[in-house]
């Protein structure tokens, strides 16, 4: 019997995340009958290769979702706020990569390895939200620890790649690096400060409580995905001059005491997680190694000697893949397999 195939739209198809989505649909042999690649006037008319064929990028407009079954959105919050509703009204199930619907109680916020059961809630609004990239890689590691020992509090600092902001930010980092090395003035268009040879403790905008929006996404989304509002989470999100893959230093206070070797064993069996932890030979997860990979990598696992039940670790994942496009395609795979 021929397997069922689906009509798919990628919104923001020429962006950093959208490009990766199309690639991953192809790599994982997602059952696609038709693919619409949608973007703004800047790239409508250009073409993108999918399964050895050139597909023309079309302009996103109100009628783009007729007969589309699944829409993968990654063109920014403003585009999603408008077009996700239009798509859902037309019967297209939206997997949205932006911040627009993540905390909507009627919209499930899903990491397939962690809370696949939540996908069933898509029927309420026709939308499933993909969490923030920094949240996804952190909960991939927190969840197995939470199940084994409970979690009281998490303190995280991120070291985030520029590709999270989109292609223009990657260009800005490369241009600034070249300019500084050539004794030229580095031009800043995307970020408020020079990012080349720098670290910037601001990702997204500041909120009234003096945290950035990115930091508060990590707090709120972690609780929603783990379905526990009592977990304390506090975050500092930092941009570093890295093109791809986010790194995170995470301190976890558990309910039950875990030794470092307990944690190593728990994480070794966790789906989608790879432990790289051999300090004697300088082996630990690195952004440049995680890029292009699907797993979330964890290392530097050690006990926090300043408290009774604390663990420190270092988490790295490709922000465009597990942090965005791969997670979205995994959600679409479950939709196709179990719901459509
Ligand atoms: O609005 P927000 O929420 O603040 O989001 C801002 C940015 O976040 C990225 C994405 O950048 C977005 O623009 N983003 C989105 N989801 C993300 C996620 N989950 C995410 N980042 C991390 N995690 P991007 O450059 O990666 O992708 C932009 C894509 O969206 C299309 N798009 C934008 N506005 C649209 C739209 N499509 C339809 N209607 C609209 N109104 C966009 O298509 C792209 O596919 P494009 O045609 O506008 O861009 C094509 C090429 O143009 C370059 N470019 C981008 N911005 C500019 C630009 N060139 C000149 N000037 C610019 N201002 C890009 O390099 C792109 O290749
Ligand atoms: O909310 O600039 O998904 O790195 C992810 C990455 C917003 C911005 C999100 C960045 C974003 C972001």
Structural notes for this entry:
- Helix 1 packs across helix 8 (321-339) and helix 3 (133-149) crosses helix 8 (321-339).
- This protein has eight helices and 14 strands.
- The chain has helices at residues 16-27, 77-89, 133-149, 167-181, 213-226, 260-268, 287-290, 321-339; strands at residues 6-11, 32-39, 47-50, 53-56, 58-59, 70-73, 93-96, 127-129, 151-160, 232-239, 246-254, 273-275, 296-303, 310-317.
- It is of the alpha/beta class and 340 residues long.
- 30% of the residues lie in helices and 24% in strands.
- The radius of gyration is 20 Å and the shape is globular.
- The chain starts with 5 loop residues before the first strand and ends with a helix.
- The chain has a six-stranded parallel beta sheet, sandwiched between helices. A six-stranded mixed beta sheet has the order 10-9-11-14-13-12. Strands 3-4 form a two-stranded antiparallel ribbon.
- The chain binds 5'-O-monophosphoryladenylyl(2'->5')adenylyl(2'->5')adenosine (25A) and trans-cyclohexane-1,4-dicarboxylic acid.
- 5'-O-monophosphoryladenylyl(2'->5')adenylyl(2'->5')adenosine binds next to helix 1, helix 2 and helix 4.
Fold blueprint:
Blueprint: E1 6-11, H1 16-27, E2 32-39, E3 47-50, E4 53-56, E5 58-59, E6 70-73, H2 77-89, E7 93-96, E8 127-129, H3 133-149, E9 151-160, H4 167-181, H5 213-226, E10 232-239, E11 246-254, H6 260-268, E12 273-275, H7 287-290, E13 296-303, E14 310-317, H8 321-339
Parallel strand pairs: 1-2, 1-6, 2-5, 6-7, 7-8, 9-10, 12-13
Antiparallel strand pairs: 3-4, 9-11, 11-14, 13-14
Helix pairs in contact: 1-8, 3-5, 3-8
Bound molecules: 5'-O-monophosphoryladenylyl(2'->5')adenylyl(2'->5')adenosine and trans-cyclohexane-1,4-dicarboxylic acid.
């Amino acid at each position: 019997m021929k397997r069922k195939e689906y009509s798919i739209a990628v919104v923001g198809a020429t962006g950093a995340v959208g490009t990766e989505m199309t690639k991953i649909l192809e790599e994982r042999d997602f059952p696609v009958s038709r693919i619409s690649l949608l973007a703004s006037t800047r790239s409508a008319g250009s073409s993108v290769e999918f399964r050895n064929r050139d597909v023309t990028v079309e302009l996103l407009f109100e009628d783009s979702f007729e007969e589309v079954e699944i829409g993968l959105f990654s063109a920014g919050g403003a585009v999603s706020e408008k077009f996700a509703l239009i798509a859902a009204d037309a019967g297209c199930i939206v997997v949205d990569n932006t911040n627009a619907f993540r905390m909507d109680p009627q919209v499930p916020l899903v990491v397939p390895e962690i809370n696949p059961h939540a996908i069933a809630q898509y029927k309420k609004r026709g939308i499933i939200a993909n969490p923030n990239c920094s949240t996804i890689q952190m909960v991939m590691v927190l969840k197995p620890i939470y199940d084994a020992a409970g979690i009281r509090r998490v303190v995280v600092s991120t070291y985030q790649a520029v590709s999270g902001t989109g292609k223009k930010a990657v260009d800005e980092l490369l241009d600034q690096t070249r300019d500084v090395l050539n004794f030229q003035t580095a031009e800043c268009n995307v970020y408020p400060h020079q990012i080349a040879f720098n670290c910037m403790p601001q990702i997204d905008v500041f909120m009234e409580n003096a945290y950035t929006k990115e930091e508060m996404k990590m707090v709120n989304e972690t609780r929603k995905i783990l379905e526990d509002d009592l977990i304390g989470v506090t975050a500092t999100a930092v941009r570093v001059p890295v093109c791809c893959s986010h790194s995170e230093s995470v301190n976890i206070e558990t309910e039950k005491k875990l030794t470092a070797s307990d944690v190593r064993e728990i994480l070794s069996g966790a789906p989608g997680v790879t432990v790289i932890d051999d300090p004697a030979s300088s082996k630990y997860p690195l952004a440049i190694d995680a890029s292009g990979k699907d797993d979330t990598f964890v290392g530097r696992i050690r006990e926090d000697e300043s408290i009774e039940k604390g663990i420190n670790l270092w988490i790295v994942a490709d922000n465009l893949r597990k942090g965005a496009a791969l997670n979205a395609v995994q959600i679409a795979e479950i939709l196709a397999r179990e719901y459509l």
